[in-house]
Amino acid sequence: MIEHEVLLERYDWLSAQILTKWRNSGAIRYFRGRGGKLVYPLIDIRWAVTVELNNSIEGE
Hints:
- The chain has one domain (2-58).
- The chain is 57% helix and 12% strand.
- It has helices spanning 4-10, 16-25, 42-58; strands at 2-3, 31-32, 38-40.
- The protein has a three-stranded antiparallel β-sheet.
- A hairpin with a 5-residue loop joins strand 2 (31-32) and strand 3 (38-40).
- The relative contact order is 0.18.
């Protein structure tokens, strides 16, 4: 699991808007961790990035 803020700091190309889009579409799961902070399963993030990249390649 990775916290929302840590994820955004670690991957500067990733934005809160992208994460929101993925959450709303069901591409990634999210939970409330300690202190009510948003956390994501890292495998979901990896999968969403892979799908997004594949979709952009197919769109070319």
